[in-house]
Amino acid sequence: MTRFTPRRLVERGDLSVPRGAAPMGARYDADAFGRMSEAIARFLGTGRFLAGQTVLVIGWITLNTVAVAHHWDPYPFILLNLAFSTQAAYTGPVLLLAGNRQAQKDRLTLEHAAMEADKADHQNVEILEGIAQVTKASDVAMLSPIVLRRTAW
To answer: For a surface tag, which of 7, 12, 24, 140 has the fewest beta carbons within 10 Å of its beta carbon?
Structure first.
């Protein structure tokens, strides 16, 4: 029975690293793969990709519908459907991986911003305490002659 220590739970929560050892000594650079997935995800979200895919699909359908001699993919367009299915099968995990990496970057940025905000709060408290001390000292300095005059009466 496996005990779930806090470290073990953190390891299980890190989805960027496989749980077990790599089979048959296969190794890859997770950061390089992550950067590549982010680049693919950025490209898939562009108008250039959508326009290119639209032109490709219209061309495919036109050639297979109008072509007189050779129809390599007749009307139900099974090969086109297969191409879309394959694209979707790879695009989904790549987008999830890119999203997970972005979430991790956002978390680190948020932690850094929180640390900076804590530092700024601490500095602000020190400045306010210093201002309060200076104000108190100046009030005492201003009141001292008044108090001395009253006691002299």
So the answer is: 24
Q: Is residue 94 part of a domain?
A: yes
pLDDT per residue as tens digits for the range 73-108: 877 789 999 999 999 998 888 888 888 889 999 999
- Asked, for residue 12, whether it belongs to a domain, the answer is no
Q: How many CA atoms lie within 13 A of 112 on its CB side?
A: 6
Domain span including residue 50: 28-144
**Spatial separation of the C-alpha atoms in residues 99 and 97, rounded to whole Å:** 5
What DSSP assignment string belongs to 53-108?
A: HHHHHHHHHHHHHH-SS--SS-TT-HHHHHHHHHHHHHHHHHHHHHHHHHHHHHHH
Half-sphere exposure of residue 72: CA atoms within 13 angstroms, side-chain side:
5
d(Cα 54, Cα 88) in Å, to the nearest integer?
Answer: 15
Give SS3 for 3: coil
Overall domain count for the chain: 1
Threshold 0.90, pTM exceeds: no
Q: Does residue 18 lie within any of the structural domains?
A: no
- Closest to 95 (Cα-Cα) out of 43, 47, 30: 43
Span 36-72, pLDDT tens digits: 888 888 888 888 998 999 999 998 888 888 876 777 7
